[in-house]
Amino acid sequence: MGSVSSPVDLFDLLGQTDRMAILRALVAVDAATAERRLTFTELKRRAGIDDTGRFNYHLGKLVGTLVAKTDEGYRLSKFGRRLLRPMTTGYYDPESTVSEIRLPGECSRCGASLRVRLHENVLQVVCTADHVVNYGLVASPGLVVEHPPAEATTALGLLTTHAVELGTTGVCPTCHGRVDGEIVPFEVRDRGDSADDGRGGVVEDSDDADCYVFRAPCETCGNRFTTPVGGCVTTHPRVVQLYAARDVDVRRTVPWTHPFRHAGAAEVVSHDPFRIGLVVGAELSGESLYLTLDGTGSVRSLQRLPP
């Protein structure tokens, strides 16, 4: 039975023609049928491997990691499905074209309208003046190609909120390993090609030298999760309640539509101990909130601001 003890082992596991043929056959049936299983004989036929001994050997190397053996036959394991199925959804399709799709909202820097583009197989939101509003939205291009802009925006909001909530609570959005985050000054590596954002790296362009971000790098997978300080409080109960009272689900709306989630929205109020504050809900009618956070992104105080 196969086992993976290190990332190098997984590369070795996949680096063989017969094993890839077996996996392609299982990926195809996983996508096409509800059963998602193939018998030994059928899998051997679909993989195009005539030698039974050779087929059995390489199948054995995959079982227990990328392939699961059941009474009914063989199928992708849960890990195998998570690893391989995105390759059939257009997620890695170099031919995907999404640059002309418009999105609701406007650029926080210049007020221009927004569009989505595909950059290194990651969806980015940019304005018509080419300012980057959001560097990393991990989703299939089909999300914006196959859905109306309003529906796509809601889905992007949910994906971003989920990734940010994980990253700001100590869980890497990419590999789900443990991360330790802190609020730090904005650096060039937090933007553009130098920002290996991965899931949830949602820092926008900023020319503000005093801008701070929440950063939680993952030593396991190398993801450098980064988000504006406002991401630390998006799902805070009082923040959710504030927006819900105005019929806005802040968890389902994209970050660029809320000023408190923009880069540069937070301001340092104390260095010893470190405290940083931001106003939440300034764009709403009625009262807003002022939250003070410590260096870990935890809320230390909250006060209501009159209209």
**Structural category:** alpha+beta
What is the β-strand count? 13
Distance between the termini: 65 Å
How many helices? Answer: 8
Mean pLDDT: 82
Based on CA atoms alone, the radius of gyration comes out at: 23 Å
Considering DSSP H and I runs of 4 or more, what fraction of the residues is helical? 25-40%
Number of separate structural domains: 3
Order of helices and strands: HHHHEEHEEEEHHEEEHEEEE
**Percent strand:** 15-25%
| Low-confidence region ranges | 190-202
Report what the structure shows.
The protein is α+β, with helices and mostly antiparallel strands and 307 residues long. The chain folds into three domains: 82 residues, Arc Repressor Mutant, subunit A (Orthogonal Bundle); 128 residues, no CATH class; 74 residues, no CATH class. It is 27% helix and 24% strand. It contains eight helices and 13 strands. Strands 3-4-5-6 form a four-stranded antiparallel sheet, covered by helices on one side. A hairpin with a 2-residue loop joins strand 10 and strand 11. Helix 2 crosses helix 3. The termini are far apart. About 4% of the residues have low confidence.
Gist of the model:
The chain is α+β, with helices and mostly antiparallel strands. It is built from 8 helices and 13 strands.
Layout of helices and strands, plus pairs?
Blueprint lengths: L6 H8 L2 H16 L7 H8 L4 H11 L4 E4 L2 E4 L1 H7 L16 E6 L6 E7 L2 E6 L4 E6 L4 H4 L3 H20 L13 E4 L26 E6 L6 E5 L8 H8 L22 E5 L2 E7 L7 E6 L5 E7 L2
Antiparallel strand pairs: 1-2, 3-4, 4-5, 5-6, 7-8, 8-9, 10-11, 11-12, 12-13
